[in-house]
C-alpha cells in the first residue's frame, strides 16, 4: 500500500490499535489485580458505582498504571515523530534523534540541571525541559555543521552524529561525577525508564510534545515538497530554510521533552517511521502523523514488556527498544547501503 494522502480509515485503524494496546497495558501489570476487577473499577468511576478494588489497588490503577501508559504514549509519539521529521529535513533515511546527537545533547543538559538544581526538575516551565531543548538543538546543529564541513552524505552525517553523541555523553559523565549523590539517579535515567507515581511527568511533557507534534504534522506536506529538491521547492513558493528551521526546532523540542522525563531511549525514531513507510508509503503527509500514533503504540508495548517480563523486577525500557531496534537498524543500513557509498 502506498498512500499520498492520509485516509480516515487508516487513522481509525491506527487509533484503534493504540487504544487496544493502551487498554491491555492498563488492565494487566506486575500487580495481579485481575483484569475484570480493573474493568469494574473503571466502570465504577464512570458511573459512580461500587468499586471492587481496595483504596491501595485503585491507587495502583489511577496513580501508577494509567499515568505510566499515557507517559509512554507521549514519549513514544515524540521520539517517532521527531525521527520522521529529521529524516525529512535531512533527506536521510537513517536520521534519528538518537543518532544525530539530539538525545545526547538533551541528556547532557538535563543531567547538568539534575546535578545543579534537583529541586527544579518538576517545574512545568522550569530549567530542565528548557535546558534539554537547548541541548537537543545544539547536538543536532553541531552534527549538521560537522557533517557538512566534512563533505555531507549519509555516512559522514552518521559518523558526525556518533562523534557528537560520544562527546556530549563524556560531558554528561563528567557532570555527574561532580555530584556523586546523583550518580544512581542519572545512570538509571541514561538507561531509559518511565518510573512515575502520579501525573506530574505527564503534565510536564504534555505542553511541549503537544505543540511540537502539531507543528510537525502541519509541516508534513512541506517535507514532501523539500524531498524533490530545494530549487524545485523554491519555485513552488516554499522557503526551504524557513521550513528546516521550524521542523528542527519542533523536532528538537519534542525530543528534549521526551528525554527529560524518560532518559535515553534509542531506536524509536528509526523503527517506527520505517515500519510506517513499509505499510503505508513514503509521503510525509502519511508518515509523520502515523509515526506519531505508531510511536505511542510501540513504546507502550515496550514499557509493558519492561515492567512485566521479570516482575517484580523491572528492565530499563531502553534495553527493550535496543533489542528490537538494533537488528532493525542493521536491516535499514543494508537496504540503503548504496546511499552510504
Sum this structure up briefly:
This protein has 341 residues and is an all-alpha fold. The chain is 74% helix and 0% strand.
What would you say this structure looks like, in words?
The protein has a single domain, classed as Orthogonal Bundle (ABC transporter involved in vitamin B12 uptake, BtuC), CATH 1.10.3470.10. It has 14 helices and no strands. It has helices at 8-27, 35-47, 55-90, 102-116, 127-149, 154-177, 183-190, 200-218, 220-226, 230-235, 240-262, 268-280, 284-308, 317-335. Helix 4 (102-116) packs antiparallel against helix 5 and helix 4 (102-116) packs parallel to helix 6.
For the record, what CATH class applies? Mainly Alpha
Proper CATH architecture: Orthogonal Bundle
Helicity range of the residues?
over 70%
Low-confidence region ranges: none
CATH superfamily: ABC transporter involved in vitamin B12 uptake, BtuC
Distance between the terminal alpha carbons, to the nearest Å? 29 Å
Class from secondary-structure proportions: mainly alpha
Number of helices: 14
Task: Indicate the radius of gyration in whole angstroms.
Answer: 20 Å
| Biggest sheet features | none
CATH names the topology as: ABC transporter involved in vitamin B12 uptake, BtuC
DSSP, total strands: 0
The proportion of strand residues reads under 5%
**SSE sequence, one letter per element:** HHHHHHHHHHHHHH
Amino acid at each position: 500500500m502506498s498512500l499520498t494522502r492520509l485516509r480516515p480509515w487508516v487513522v481509525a485503524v491506527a487509533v484503534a490499535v493504540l487504544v487496544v494496546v493502551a487498554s491491555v497495558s492498563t488492565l494487566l501489570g506486575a500487580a495481579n489485580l485481575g483484569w475484570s476487577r480493573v474493568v469494574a473499577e473503571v466502570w465504577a468511576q464512570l458511573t459512580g458505582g461500587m468499586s471492587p478494588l481496595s483504596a491501595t489497588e485503585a491507587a495502583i490503577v489511577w496513580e501508577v498504571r494509567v499515568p505510566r501508559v499515557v507517559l509512554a504514549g507521549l514519549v513514544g509519539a515524540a521520539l517517532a515523530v521527531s525521527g520522521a521529521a529529521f529524516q525529512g529535513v535531512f533527506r536521510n533515511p537513517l536520521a534519528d534523534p538518537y543518532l544525530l546527537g539530539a538525545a545526547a545533547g538533551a541528556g547532557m543538559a538535563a543531567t547538568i540541571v539534575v546535578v545543579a538544581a534537583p529541586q527544579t526538575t518538576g517545574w512545568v516551565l522550569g530549567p530542565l525541559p528548557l535546558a534539554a531543548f537547548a541541548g537537543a538543538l545544539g547536538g543536532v546543529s553541531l552534527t549538521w555543521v560537522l557533517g557538512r564541513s566534512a563533505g555531507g552524505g549519509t555516512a559522514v552525517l552518521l559518523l558526525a552524529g556518533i562523534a557528537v553523541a560520544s562527546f556530549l555523553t563524556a560531558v554528561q559523565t563528567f557532570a555527574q561525577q561532580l555530584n556523586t549523590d546523583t550518580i544512581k539517579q542519572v545512570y538509571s535515567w541514561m538507561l531509559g525508564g518511565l518510573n512515575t507515581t502520579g501525573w506530574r511527568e505527564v503534565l510536564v511533557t504534555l505542553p511541549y510534545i503537544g505543540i511540537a507534534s502539531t507543528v510537525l504534522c502541519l509541516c508534513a506536506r512541506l517535507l514532501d515538497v523539500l524531498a524533490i529538491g530545494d530549487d524545485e521547492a523554491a519555485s513552488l513558493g516554499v522557503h526551504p530554510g524557513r521550513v528546516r528551521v521550524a521542523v528542527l526546532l519542533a523536532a528538537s523540542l519534542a525530543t528534549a521533552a521526551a528525554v527529560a522525563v524518560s532518559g535515553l531511549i534509542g531506536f524509536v525514531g528509526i523503527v517506527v517511521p520505517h515500519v510506517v513507510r513499509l505499510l503505508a508509503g513514503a509521503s510525509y503527509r502519511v508518515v509523520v502523523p502515523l509515526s506519531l500514533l505508531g510511536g505511542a503504540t510501540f513504546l507502550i508495548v515496550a514499557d509493558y514488556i519492561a515492567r512485566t517480563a521479570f516482575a517484580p523486577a523491572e528492565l530499563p525500557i531502553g534495553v527493550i527498544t535496543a533489542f528490537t531496534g538494533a537488528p532493525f537498524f542493521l536491516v535499514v543500513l543494508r537496504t540503503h547501503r548504496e546511499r552510504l557509498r
